[in-house]
């Protein structure tokens, strides 16, 4: 069975629409031990990211905020992808994900559902929407107190 490029693109868009319509882990977390704010002034995307760490592992992650479909879907997909992962693994995933959207992705990396966002590489402005949640997560787990900016 083969899947055409057009079909794949449609499938990717459907996943993004779905995560924008009903974002996963979209709630304030009362027991969070790391919280960070993110803002993408170029598009108006704004989010607050909540993380609970347990021995260097992301035990829980959630977010609230508002923004475009790409930023919301990306935050939703990210919270799903990072739960249960170590901080080191998540930082490495962020680096690779950023490379997927802006340059040459590392060979052999399985991005899972995050792959659906690869299409934004054709729209440089949208890259900031797709990486906002990741920048904010980075700040949250490294304890940076300034709001995450995509600039
Ligand atoms: Zn946006």
Task: List its traits.
151 residues, 4 strands, globular, binds zinc ion
Summarize this, please?
The chain is of the alpha+beta class and 151 residues long. It has 4 helices and 4 strands; from the N terminus they run αβββαααβ.
What does this structure look like?
With 151 residues, the chain is of the alpha+beta class. The chain has one domain: Sufe protein. Chain: A. 44% of the residues lie in helices and 19% in strands. The chain is built from four helices and four strands; from the N terminus they run H-E-E-E-H-H-H-E. A four-stranded mixed beta sheet has the order 3-2-1-4, covered by helices on one side. A hairpin with a 4-residue loop joins strand 1 and strand 2. The longest helix is centred in the C-terminal third of the chain and has 19 residues. It is globular and about 45 Å long. It starts with a helix and ends with a strand. The model has no long low-confidence stretch (mean pLDDT 92).
CATH architecture: Alpha-Beta Complex
**What kind of assembly state do the chains in view correspond to?**
single chain
What class would the helix/strand composition place it in?
Answer: alpha+beta
Name the bound molecules: zinc ion
Number of domains: 1
Largest sheet: 4 strands, mixed
Span of the ends, CA to CA: 43 Å
Strand content: 15-25%
Runs in which pLDDT lies below 50 for 5 or more consecutive residues are none
Helical residue percent band: 40-55%
- What Rg, in angstroms, do the CA atoms define? 15 Å
CATH class division? Alpha Beta
Order of helices and strands: HEEEHHHE
